Amino acid sequence: MPKEDNNNKQYTKEFKELVLKRLDPPKSESVPEISKELNIAKSTIYQWIRTNDKSKKQSIQTTNNKHSSKWSSEDKFQVVLETYTLTEEELSAYCRRKGIYVDEVKSWRYLCLKANATISKDPQKIENALKEEQQRNKDLEKELRRKEKALAETAALLVLRKKAQAIWGEPEDE
């Protein structure tokens, strides 16, 4: 991507943007890392940062503008992956670069490790409990139908009694 021009390397705008993008969160690679990898002078990269707009420059500095509580789950998981094998000193340096606390990373790591550690019950017990509940439900529905029929019968008898009284009147005592 760099173009050669009289011993001075000239870089395309797209290449500079790609390098500057690598400095942004969630990757937040350091200038020395990129400088060594791409064989570009650190001063050149710092010059690109200075010439870029101020909002871009602020997000590239050692702390993140975005508070870690607003990070996405993927970003937090990425941090856990990147820091899992680091020593305490390396972790501290990493956290300073990212603008986060070591305790946050440790809590994210703990949550990631416990994410799939749910306590599972014996499938046979669950199946038996389900069968019991289904039988209980069936019995309750049967009892409900019986009571509905009795209620309907009682209502019908009351209606017949009222009709009989309307037709023949009140029964007389003899």
UniProtKB/TrEMBL annotation:
Q: What is this protein called?
A: Transposase
Q: Which UniProt keywords apply?
A: Coiled coil
List where this protein forms a coiled coil. Answer: 123-157
